[in-house]
Amino acid sequence: MKEPRSKLNLNIFLSLFFAGILLSSPCVCQTFDLLIKNGHLLDAKNNINKSMDIGIRQGKVALVSESISSSKSKVVVDAKGLFITPGLIDPHTHVYVGENPRVFAAGSSSVYPDSFTFRSGVTTVVDAGTSGWRNFEDFKAKVIDLSQTRVLAFLNISGGGMQGNPSQEDLEDMDPMATSKMIKNYSEYIVGVKIGHYEGEDWTPFERAIEAAELATLPLLVECHLPNYSLADQLERMRPGDILSHTFENVKDREPIIDTEGKLLPEVIQAREKGILFDVSHGGAGFWFNQAIPAMKQGLKPDTFGTDLHRFSMNAGMKNFSNVLSKFMAMNMSLEEVISKASWGTALAIGREDLGHLSEGAVADIALFRLREGEFGFVDAGGEKITGKNMLEAEMTIREGRIVYDLNGLSARPFKTD
Predict the structure, then answer these.
(1) How many other C-beta atoms lie within 10 A of the C-beta of residue 91?
(2) Are strands 34-43 and 48-57 parallel, antiparallel or unpaired?
(3) What is the pLDDT of residue 110?
(4) Which of 63, 173, 262, 332 could form a disulfide with 159 if both were Cys (CB 3.0 to 4.6 A apart)?
(5) What is the pLDDT of residue 4?
(6) What's the chain's Rg over C-alpha atoms?
(7) What's the pLDDT score for residue 25?
(8) CA 272, CA 203: separation in Å to the nearest integer?
(9) What's the CA dihedral at 94, 96, 101, 103 to 10 degrees?
(10) CATH T-level fold of 87-356
């Protein structure tokens, strides 16, 4: 006797339904290219702060779980005792390297990104206006397209970027329309507009930079190498989401954020309330304890940890990205806080919410850190030092699912003698 058609249809539906569940489940028969086990995951976007395993397949995060069998993966990394973080983002670098002497744009003052990123757990850098609308395509061809590191950029309002004077002073070369057009053509790479290194009193460069940013609906990065603009006037013109660099700088001809009585300037407090973001931009001369420590005690912590990486800063007090994070931990920021700001917080600041987290399906940009204990010295631009009890050290960096840095051979096979 045949079953009724309605019952057959129901059986078919149920069969297809449960087959779909089995096929779509990540746990049933899935294998991974790489599995990270036993590490402590810090993922601010997903509010994870505990031991988790991460399975990676085809360059993406395939599964995040409290326990994944080692038999499921081709390569297994035991991260016991280590912190797992999203690949970190350095929002202020100069990486448009080239043969031109003593300049940043296609010059010897910039540095090649892959030489410095992975050994600090950084998988993405943002070039801070080293190129402008005239030479961004050259920068892309010679550096961005050739780098393993993901390279993004703020586009300088000056057409030739950071070529030094008189190029950087040329008002005719500061074209908002050409700038916004270049951003539109390369929106995958350009995250904002930059104004900086202008020594005149005319506000036209600043106004044109804001116009370009508004045309592109992107943030403005204000580099405080603008000696004839008052800090108050700059902050007043900036919009919510715009970024002030060299927040803790204290050099001649540039206004510090701390007054002579050790108090935050009122305009700085108002800017924070307005939604302006504050980046470290450490550099060789851009970070001073006499600004950072009182500012932080009064509630002004950095939103992002730009290093201002270039030929000179890397051998001065800045050192590298993980050293900068460790320095702020020595000033009483927690590990969780610096990692949160250096990953998801920076991704939000530059409008790249595809980065800075390890959600399932996200690109597998990952760092493994060891938190070393001891006594460590941290130096500022004024030659002063503080000590801290912890130093972050990158053990492994993974870019798009591929191990690109492995300090102690966590993924290597043991050498066997005969």
Answers:
(1) 32
(2) antiparallel
(3) 97
(4) 173
(5) 54
(6) 24
(7) 46
(8) 23
(9) -50
(10) TIM Barrel (3.20.20)
Phi/psi at 398 (5° precision): -120, 125
Q: Which distant-in-sequence residues (6+ apart) come within 8 Å of 116 by Cβ?
A: 122, 309, 314, 320
Instruction: List the one residue out of 401, 416, 392 whose CA is nearest residue 87.
Output: 401
The candidate with the shortest Cα–Cα distance to 244, out of 228, 216, 225, is 225
Q: What pLDDT was estimated at residue 373? A: 98
Q: How far apart are CA 61 and CA 58, in angstroms?
A: 8
Distance CA 65, CA 391 (A): 28
* Tokens representing residue 155 in the block: 């586009």
Whole-angstrom distance between the N-terminal and C-terminal Cα of the chain? Answer: 72
Q: Quick one: angle between helices 176-185 and 204-216, nearest 10?
A: 30
- Evaluate if pTM is beyond 0.90: yes
CB 168 within 8 A of CB 201: no
| 59 token code pair | 């360059």
What pLDDT shows up at residue 381? 95
Segment-wise mean pLDDT, segments of 10 residues, the chain, 418 residues = 51 50 47 97 98 98 97 95 98 96 95 97 98 98 98 98 89 97 98 93 95 98 90 96 97 91 98 98 96 98 98 94 98 98 98 98 98 98 97 98 98 89
